[in-house]
Write a structure and sequence with these properties.
By secondary structure, the chain is α/β, with parallel strands linked by helices. The protein has three domains: 4-217, 3-Layer(aba) Sandwich (Rossmann fold); 221-305, Helicase, Ruva Protein, domain 3 (Orthogonal Bundle), CATH 1.10.8.60; 325-411, Arc Repressor Mutant, subunit A (Orthogonal Bundle), CATH 1.10.10. The longest helix is centred in the C-terminal third of the chain and has 19 residues, at 324-342. The chain has helices spanning 55-68, 84-94, 112-120, 137-140, 156-168, 194-199, 205-211, 226-242, 252-260, 266-280, 324-342, 347-353, 358-368, 382-394, 404-411, and strands at residues 4-7, 10-13, 24-30, 40-45, 48-52, 74-77, 102-106, 121-122, 134-135, 145-149, 170-171, 180-181, 185-190, 214-217, 249-250, 285-286, 370-373, 379-381.
């Protein structure tokens, strides 16, 4: 089996002894764990890094590395947040054009008129607000790569002008009379069904054929679950570093919750979830209650698809439902009660038993009105416990009760 390792110059495959072209800083395929599992790689391209643990993703990036050596236009498909822009940066960095500019236009972020103005540029006086000449992104990408993000959003007019520019390798600014020679490579991305848009007449067939000379589809995060933990830990470290905090790790329960989530927002959703967790955690470990509530709202089947809803799942009467937050709070209170009962009311031991930081456990004890366990082993509220001990003290069978603060210190 072919293995690879990192050098300062790029990725070296030990089977072929060929180095990656371009300005790839690191490309390390090193085993993450023992036992024959697929290796993990971390590619650092300029200011971006890519963690790759899924075998299909490793093959995909090796394909992109090979395609980068050509001048073929490239179409990157995939759901929103799957990493299409990062893949485009990787292709540019591996290509012979890596020393040239990398220019990106979000075709969905602005109006039709503004998109054409940004793409093709304009001459002074081309329209009311054109007070000076402005080169378009096609011109600015000369000698490098132009990335058209969400290309399916281009208007019919922009599609026609772009096709002409690519066919003749020349561009005409809006309001201009003289064409300018261009030398660019096009990488287009789409989260839509471009073939369906062609069939429906919303996208030009000739432009589609030109842009998709090479086509690669990036799989959703739910289809590469082995990467979830690695990406989550990376995003967590970045968010913690940005907040000038210490090192934190993901607890087993939090990892299980992340693995069960369907991640419809893919890598971007995971990144936002880790930033949220980093802001909430007050210890050195992330637990389920530090994660966004949306990550606990669904579960995935073993094959990575959302769990199907069966008739039995909907048999519960509609009037018996209550907000999920209330149900989760009730479950948490019950588990804390059981832990207190099992440890004789010692808070620190109870917190360790359910994997909750002591500070969080103490706060939630107050929130739920739980402090210790009664002699019978059932949970009791703080007022009830104090009243019981006062009664026993009056009868001469027990010393006067301690204050809550002293009790908490004694337990800990």
């Amino acid at each position: 089996m072919s293995t690879a390792y990192a050098t300062e110059e790029g990725l070296v495959d030990q089977a072929t002894s060929t180095k990656s072209p371009g300005n790839l800083d690191t490309g390390a395929f090193v085993p993450a764990v023992a036992g024959g599992e697929a290796p993990t790689s971390k590619l650092v391209i300029a200011d971006r890094s890519v963690v790759i643990a899924d075998p299909d993703m490793q093959r995909l990036y090796r394909l992109l590395e090979r395609l980068a050596r050509s001048e073929l236009p490239l179409l990157l498909r995939g759901e929103t947040g799957t990493g299409k822009t990062t893949a485009a940066h990787a292709v540019h960095g591996w290509s012979a054009r890596s020393a040239g500019p990398l220019v990106t236009l979000d075709c969905a972020a602005q109006s039709e008129a503004l998109t054409e103005r940004e793409l093709f540029g304009c001459e002074r006086g081309a329209f009311g607000s054109a007070s000076s000449r402005k080169p378009g992104m096609i011109e600015r990408a000369h000698g490098g790569t132009l990335v058209l993000d969400q290309v399916h959003q281009l208007s019919a007019s922009a599609q026609a002008r772009l096709l002409g520019a690519l066919e003749h390798r020349r561009v005409l600014r809006l309001g201009g009379k003289h064409e300018r020679t261009i030398d660019i490579r096009i990488i287009a991305t789409t989260s839509g069904d471009l073939a369906a848009a062609v069939a429906a007449g919303r996208f030009r067939r000739d432009l589609y054929d030109r842009l998709s000379a090479a086509s690669v589809t990036l799989p959703p995060l739910r289809a590469r679950r082995r990467e979830i933990a690695l990406l989550a830990q990376q995003f967590l470290a970045v968010a913690r570093g940005r907040d000038a905090g210490g090192t934190i790790a993901l607890g087993p329960a939090a990892l299980a919750q992340l693995a069960a989530h369907t991640w419809t927002g893919n890598v971007r959703e995971l990144e936002h979830a880790m930033a949220y967790a980093a802001a909430l955690v007050d210890g050195d470990r992330v637990e389920p209650w530090h994660l966004p509530e949306t990550t606990a709202a669904d579960h995935a089947a073993p094959n990575g698809e959302p769990t199907p809803i069966h008739e039995a799942d909907s048999a519960r009467p509609a009037g018996s439902f209550r907000p999920i937050a209330e149900e989760l709070a009730a479950l948490e209170r019950r588990r804390m009660t059981e832990a207190l009962r099992a440890t004789g009311g010692v808070q620190r031991r109870a917190a360790e038993l359910i994997g909750m930081p002591v500070r969080t456990f103490t706060f939630k004890l107050t929130q739920y009105g739980l402090r210790s366990t009664s002699p019978a082993g059932t949970a009791e509220t703080a007022p009830a416990r104090i009243a019981r001990r006062r009664s026993r003290a009056a009868a001469g069978t027990e010393a006067p009760p301690m204050t809550e603060a002293l009790r908490s210190d004694a337990d800990n």
